[in-house]
Design a protein that fits this description.
It comes from Salvia splendens. Keywords: Metal-binding, Zinc, Zinc-finger. InterPro entries: Znf_RING/FYVE/PHD (IPR013083), Znf_UBP (IPR001607). The protein is mostly helical. The protein has a domain of 85 residues. Helix content is 75%, strand content 7%. The chain contains 5 helices and 5 strands, in the order αβββββαααα. The chain has a 3-stranded antiparallel beta sheet with strand order 1-2-3, with no helix packed on it.
């Protein structure tokens, strides 16, 4: 009898139902109803044949004789406690065994499910390919669809690159604007300093011009007198020449 699903059949040495069940389901633990022993098809040996006695700590074999011995000694309290502990130990071991087998069964059925999905997908692909080969219009549409998908993938890649480049150029533009702002501040400050220097220079030149003008305004009196004297001498000279000419005419 299978310890996992409870399937009942002949042993491996008769019609081989148990081993066939193991190959199909990977349920490796089978209970022999006659001997009450468990056969492990994966390990190819018996399991749970040895248990540890709490009375002396030795390992003893558990078989149908032990079970019958347990029935015959049920009236003894000490033996009942010892065998009860042994049965509890066996029960715990069986639970652990059952848990591990359930986990292996989970993996087994998951693998079957995955294989079924792969087979379904493969059959679907073959059916589509067959339909396309039999119908030229479908084949043409499929080619257009494949081409459209490829173009979409290409455009998506270009779009992603453009978005990345956009972020890069935006960062560069921000840096350039920041540098230009700093340069404008430096230029404005320099222009302000130059304007102050120019104002100082203009004030200095105006002061120099005013001083020179005041110095030259005091000198024209002597030059004017010289001009008057020169004019008078010219007039007297002119008169002398006129008198000499008149005298010559009279002679």
């Amino acid at each position: 009898m299978c310890l996992i699903c409870g399937s009942v059949g002949c042993g491996r040495y008769r019609e081989g139902h148990a081993i066939g069940h193991w190959k199909e389901t990977e349920h490796c633990y089978s209970l022999e109803l006659e001997t009450q022993r468990v056969w492990d098809y994966a390990g190819d040996n018996y399991v749970h044949r040895l248990i540890q006695s709490k009375t002396d700590g030795k390992l003893v074999e558990l078989n149908h004789h032990c079970v019958r011995h347990y029935d015959g000694l049920s009236e003894s309290t000490g033996h009942n406690d010892s065998l009860g502990d042994e049965v509890e130990y066996i029960k715990n071991e069986y639970n652990e065994l059952l848990t591990s087998q359930l986990e292996s069964q989970k993996k087994y059925f998951e693998s079957l499910l995955q294989e079924a999905e792969e087979d379904t997908e493969r059959e679907s692909s073959l059916a589509i390919e067959k339909a396309l080969n039999e119908n030229p219009k479908l084949l043409k549409l499929q080619k257009k669809l494949d081409k459209g998908i490829e173009q979409k993938r290409f455009l998506d890649e270009i779009n992603d690159n453009l978005l990345r480049n956009q972020s890069i150029w935006e960062s560069k533009i921000e840096d350039t604007e920041e540098r230009e702002k700093k340069l404008l501040l430096v230029k404005d400050k320099r222009i302000e300093e130059l304007e102050k220097q120019l104002q100082s220079m203009m004030a200095y030149l105006e002061t120099q011009n005013s001083e020179q003008h005041s110095a030259t305004s005091d000198e024209p009196t002597d030059s004017n007198s010289e001009v008057v004297v020169a004019e008078k001498s010219c007039e007297s000279g002119g008169r002398g020449t006129k008198k000499a000419k008149s005298r010559r005419k009279k002679k």
